[in-house]
From TrEMBL:
Region (Disordered), start-end ranges: 189-229
UniProt membrane topology term: Multi-pass membrane protein
Protein name: Synaptogyrin
Family from the record: Belongs to the synaptogyrin family.
Superkingdom as given in the UniProt entry: Eukaryota
Organism: Poecilia latipinna (sailfin molly)
Gene Ontology CC annotation, any one: synaptic vesicle membrane
Amino acid sequence: MQAYGAGKAGGAFDPVTFLQQPQTILRIVSWLFSIVIFGCIANEGYINRPNEVEEYCIFNRNQNACNYGVFMGSMAFLCCVAFLALDVYFPQISSVKDRKKAVLADIGISFWSFMWFVGFCFLANQWQVSKQEDNPLREGGDAARAAITFSFFSIFTWVGQSFLAFQRYKLGADSALFSHEYTDPSQDAAGAPYTSFGGDDLESPGGGGGQTNSDGPFDGSGGYQRQDY
């Protein structure tokens, strides 16, 4: 029984199982793609003509194209790291409401798919209209094509993350195991009220509330019988 894709809080963390989860694999792949995109543009995305000193963006000398790629790559990197940390901590969240918020936040990152689609179209268009005279030595061409290619692949990895998050949201919480006010039992054991054994059948020291005999005073007829020798 699980709540939003994870069992009860307090279980031991298994790194092998964690790394085998589909959302973990997609986050790591997206994280690697963001590093490639950011690194390609930051390291080889700025060139100049032989007679120039100032460097310009390799994508049609459009600084906005390089800035967009660097921004998207760096933000996607941080986002992947943050959600990987949340995935590690997620099974330890005892409240179903908090788990629901985490899953909804995971669904909310679906906008990255659209952002990468815009980035792919933007970079591909600017690379297509780039002039040969702006880069006569053909510098940085492989890096530019790599940034465009991995921007395209990032669309699908982020769509996959959103799809898996939506599946976890649909899974919801098993009402037989969890309630909206569920907390870790180890945290509430000390504060549980003490219940006396036997309930209300035991007579209290004050005499009130105990069980009474309605047959009159005890005459010994039903108890021990004296024997004469």
